[in-house]
Amino acid sequence: MLDTMSCLERFASATRLHIDLSVQVIGDTPPRVRVRNRFSDTLAEVVTCSPQGVFLTSWGYRLGTTDDIDGAAARLAYLLAALPA
């Protein structure tokens, strides 16, 4: 069984590499990561990880899988108009 909290923590770490993003891991049920662009009040997203290892936005967009966490984080950064560090 996949440890979704561990996957979300790794996703959060990869997302933090994008300097324009503020990242918060929320350990409630279900666990999730709240990400927002530091320079915008509207560019924000909540990401969860499915039991199958898929990172999903709150509106159902598939960012990627646990096989490529860096790629999933980069996709979210692109959606939130963030720059890499």
Largest sheet: 5 strands, antiparallel
Written as H for each helix and E for each strand, in order along the chain, the element string is: HEEEEEH
Give the low-confidence spans.
none
Fraction in beta strands: 25-35%
Oligomer state of the chains in this structure? single chain
What form results from the Cα inertia axes? globular
Q: Count the helices. How many?
A: 2
What's the gyration radius in Å?
Answer: 12 Å
In total, the number of strands is 5
Question: Helicity level, as a percent range?
Answer: 25-40%
Average pLDDT number: 93
How far apart are the first and last residues' alpha carbons, in Å? 33 Å
Give the strand line-up of the largest sheet. 1-2-3-4-5
Based on secondary structure, the structural category is alpha+beta
Map the helices and strands:
Blueprint: H1 4-15, E1 21-26, E2 32-37, E3 44-49, E4 54-57, E5 62-65, H2 69-79
Antiparallel strand pairs: 1-2, 2-3, 3-4, 4-5
Helix pairs in contact: 1-2
Can you characterise this structure?
There is one protein chain. This protein is α+β, with helices and mostly antiparallel strands and 85 residues long. The protein is built from two helices and five strands, in the order αβββββα. It has helices at 4-15, 69-79; strands at 21-26, 32-37, 44-49, 54-57, 62-65. The protein has a five-stranded antiparallel sheet, with helices on one face. Helix 1 (4-15) crosses helix 2. The longest helix has 12 residues, at 4-15. The chain is globular, with a radius of gyration of 12 Å. It starts with a helix and ends in a 6-residue tail after the last helix.
